[in-house]
Amino acid sequence: MNFENRLFLKPITIGVLMIIYTSILFFSEMLVYWVMTLFSFILLFFVNRKKTFSFITAYMLLFALIRIMNFLTLSGWIGSVYTMALIVVKLFPLWILVGIITEFNTSEIIASLRKLKLPNNLCVGVSIFIRFIPEYRNYLKEIKEGLKVRNISFNILKPLQSFEMYLVPLIYKAFDTANILTCSLITKGIEFDCEKTSYIDLSLTWRDYAVIMAGMVFIGITVWEKL
């Protein structure tokens, strides 16, 4: 994604919208939910069109799965899968925003959090967590390819054993990534006690204010419907 598209919206704006969504998603009526979902897809489209189509495909598949499972007897593990699918679909507007915020690089996220006067350690920790969400998806792909080479596949009849085959390599990957990040942070003097500056302009524009106002409208409608 190029520089201009990445800063179509500022990280602070997406963070505020995530807080708004989190506070009203489980209380909003279906109309507000659909509007929030559509609004999130539109924002993602302006940030990363390719990712938008991936999210739309995932959403449609989940929705189709729920529709199909409505015709089944919802007991045992089928009921558990159905419940999990409902939760994921309900929170999908939030997942879309997560997809948007992972498009920002670490420097932009850290600089945005520092503008909020948050502690430096918190800024670094949150930014690294957000930045490396997509990386762990790549790690899972690497683990899957490694298991495939060894002719090992996921066995639904042995979920714990299959889960362990993914979890253990992922933990080792996490430790390896942590060591690399620690060396990188020390080299860049991230812990040096001084005023930090950024060459990136993170001041809010009319687009950011418009998005935040839209979020406030969602809150207002949700509260009005509950009165």
Textual characterization of the structure:
With 227 residues, this protein is mainly alpha-helical. It has 2 domains: 117 residues, no CATH class; 71 residues, no CATH class. The protein contains 11 helices and no strands. The termini are far apart.
- How many angstroms separate the termini? 43 Å
Q: What's the helix-strand series? A: HHHHHHHHHHH
The domain tally reads 2
Radius of gyration equals: 20 Å
Principal-axes geometry comes out as flat
The overall pLDDT average reads 81
Q: Kindly state the percentage of residues in helix.
A: over 70%
Largest sheet: none
Given as residue ranges, the uncertain stretches (5+ residues, pLDDT < 50) are 1-6
Overall number of strands: 0
Approximately how much beta-strand content do the residues carry? under 5%
| Number of helices, where a helix is a run of at least 4 consecutive DSSP H or I residues | 11
Q: Which structural category fits the helices and strands? A: mainly alpha
List keywords for this structure.
single chain; mainly alpha; 75% helix; 0% strand; Cobalt transport protein; transmembrane helix; ABC/ECF_trnsptr_transmembrane; membrane
SSE topology sketch:
Layout: H1 3-6, H2 11-24, H3 30-47, H4 49-69, H5 77-90, H6 92-101, H7 106-115, H8 120-131, H9 133-149, H10 159-187, H11 206-226
Helix pairs in contact: 2-6, 2-11, 3-4, 3-6, 4-5, 7-8, 9-10
InterPro entries: ABC/ECF_trnsptr_transmembrane
Subcellular location: Membrane
Protein name: Cobalt transport protein
